[in-house]
Amino acid sequence: MNKYIRQLMIVTAFSFSSFGIAHDLGSAISSEERTPSYVLRDKYRNPYETLSFFRIQPEMTVVELSPGRGWYTEILAMLMYDKGRYIVAP
Predict the structure, then answer these.
(1) Measured between alpha carbons, how far is 60 from 84 in angstroms, rounded to an integer?
(2) In this predicted model, what pLDDT tens digit does every residue of 17-66 receive, in sequence order?
(3) Where are the beta strands (DSSP E) in 1-90?
(4) pTM of this prediction?
(5) CA–CA separation, 62 vs 38, rounded Å?
(6) What phi and psi, each to the nearest 5 degrees, are found at residue 73?
(7) Mutual angle of helices 36-45 and 71-80, in 10-degree steps
(8) Which of 23, 9, 19, 15 is nearest to 83 (CA)?
(9) What is the distance between the alpha carbons of residues 77 and 86, in angstroms, rounded to a whole number?
(10) How many helices (H) and strands (E) does the chain have?
(11) Which of 44, 64, 80, 87 has the most crowded Cβ, counting Cβ within 10 A?
């Protein structure tokens, strides 16, 4: 249950603040707002290549099923903040 509270806190923080806004995938991935330990994992998880493969765009509605600890959540919440919808479904 603790991981769901963390997810809710991340999404809520991006919803009510002006930080964390990215207009493209590259900006979302390279954002200074991301958790440093998550940024270190980028070289193994290849977020740009993965999300580009799925053709994720900022104006889409994206539903993340069973989010883990928030690695994708940080990226997608920043990307979808302005124009799209991001839904976390536990």
Answers:
(1) 5
(2) 445 577 799 999 999 999 999 999 999 999 999 999 999 999 999 999 98
(3) 61-65, 85-89
(4) 0.75
(5) 20
(6) -60, -45
(7) 100
(8) 23
(9) 6
(10) 5, 2
(11) 80
* Residue 22: C-alpha distances to residues 18, 35, 83 (Å): 10, 15, 10
69: its two tokens? 């600890």
d(CA 73, CA 22): 13
Q: Report how far apart, in Å, the C-alpha atoms of 53 and of each of 45, 60, 68 are.
A: 13, 15, 20
Residue 48 tokens read as: 């740009």
